[in-house]
Amino acid sequence: MKISQACAYALHALMYMARHITQLPVTGKAMAKAEGMPPEYLAKVLQRLVRAGFIRSVQGRERGYVFARPPEQISLLALFESLEEQPLFDDCPLRHCACGGTKENCHLYAQWLAATRRFKELLEETTVASAAWHHPEHRFDVLPGLALKEAE
Fold it and tell me: Is position 146 within any domain?
């Protein structure tokens, strides 16, 4: 499993919002500056979060983003699968193998399914709120001029 840069930024933006929930709404620029993310790229990620129904945009005098649903109700599995637009683990790690990758004919694939089932459960149990308070605060500190490939 490999999470895209967009998912990493989305998670960190939501964790920032959860840690600063009493100060919402917050702008994308404020989050980008605080977390060390490129503001233009984060703006695209935030729009994806709006479309997915995790946050909403607030206009007017106090503009920015607020949660569309409580961070205690947003699982990491739902977040990742929504932004990646596909299941995270349903594919065999040896999908290029000639065996066809079924649990009946491939012991490795059967083991993969058992291991990923538990990991999916952990991601489902872990919410943005719990992740926010159990993850060290840090900055991405993107190097100036570094071009990030946008996840499709």
Answer: no
Q: Which residues constitute the domain of residue 28?
A: 5-86+127-133
Please choose, from the candidates 121, 93, 117, 96, the residue with its C-alpha nearest in 3D space to the C-alpha of residue 107: 93
* Global confidence as pTM: 0.81
Task: Provide the number of structural domains found in the chain.
Answer: 1
Cβ(12)–Cβ(1) below 8 Å: no
Could you list the pLDDT tens digit for every one of the 152 residues in the chain? 678 999 999 999 999 999 999 999 999 999 999 999 999 999 999 999 999 999 999 998 889 999 999 999 999 999 999 999 777 777 777 767 777 767 788 888 888 888 889 999 999 999 999 999 887 666 676 544 444 444 33
Length of the chain, in residues? 152
